[in-house]
Design brief:
The protein contains eleven helices and ten strands. It starts with 5 loop residues before the first strand and ends with a helix. Helix content is about 40%, strand content about 15%. The radius of gyration is 17 Å and the shape is globular. This is Sugar phosphate isomerase/epimerase.
């Protein structure tokens, strides 16, 4: 049986991170997580380094602005912190309207990947809904983008935003294949109203089918916002994922 890796995007707990970063990581570890996806690691680099040393948590991945940000600095800091995969979380919607624009965006990310290889850091991309809303000859913009990426650039598929964008996450995983190395998992009604998002297993997402479609992908809990206690949402999400993955 494939070993399941569970993580949490710390953006979900951003308010707590800003006030008590080491305490937040300690609470995440106490829930049973062994991995985290770092948020604002460039800003909190030293605090993350100290806090990670005090827990068993591994920084498998992190988000950073790579296409429009200081990619070389982000890669350098990622390598210092032991971050395995550095993920571009957002390329603006205006760059997804034509095939040429999409391929140009992919070329930009490929440039970052070439920079990162020598540092031992893998580069990836995380989608929202705009990457899948437009049709390009029967394919989404995300698929066009993936075809233009270098072989070692990976995808972190936000399954919720794919579904909100009108595409089956399961079918998209099937078409994108092994390039999908991380899954962002959240739940709720299919809406862009962030506060209506719910813990995994408490909304409309076909979670069991999604997990089955990507058995080797890292399961990353992430809520963009939540009306209740985000720690409780994360705890409930992990419990549900472990149960469904059995």
């Amino acid at each position: 049986m494939t070993e399941r890796l569970y993580s949490v995007q710390l953006y979900t707990l951003r308010n707590a991170i800003e006030t008590d970063l080491p305490g937040t990581l300690a609470r995440v570890a106490a829930m049973g997580f062994e991995n985290v996806e770092l948020w604002r690691f460039e800003q909190y680099r030293d605090a993350y380094r100290r806090a990670l040393a005090e827990t068993p948590l591994r920084p498998l991945s992190a988000h950073a602005s790579l296409v429009d940000g200081n990619a070389s600095a982000a890669v350098r800091m990622a390598a210092e912190l032991g971050i395995g995969t550095l993920i571009e979380p957002h390329i603006i919607a205006q760059r997804w309207t034509t095939r040429a624009d999409i391929e140009a965006a992919a070329a930009s990310l490929n440039g970052v990947a070439r920079l990162a290889r020598d540092a031992g850091v893998t580069i990836g991309y995380h989608n929202h809904d705009h990457e899948v809303r437009q049709d390009f000859g029967g394919r989404t913009g995300l698929e066009v983008f993936a075809e233009a990426l270098d072989e070692d650039v990976v995808l972190e598929l936000d399954t919720f935003w794919a579904e909100v964008g009108g595409v089956s996450a399961v079918e998209l995983i099937s078409r994108l294949g092994a390039r999908v190395r991380f899954l962002h998992l959240k739940d709720g009604p299919y809406t862009t109203t962030l506060l209506e998002q719910q813990p995994v297993g408490q909304g409309a997402m076909p979670m069991a089918d999604i997990l089955k479609a990507a058995p080797d992908a890292v399961r990353v809990v992430e809520l963009d916002d939540y009306a209740g206690d985000p720690f409780e949402a994360v705890r409930q999400s992990l419990r549900h994922l472990v149960e469904v993955d059995q």
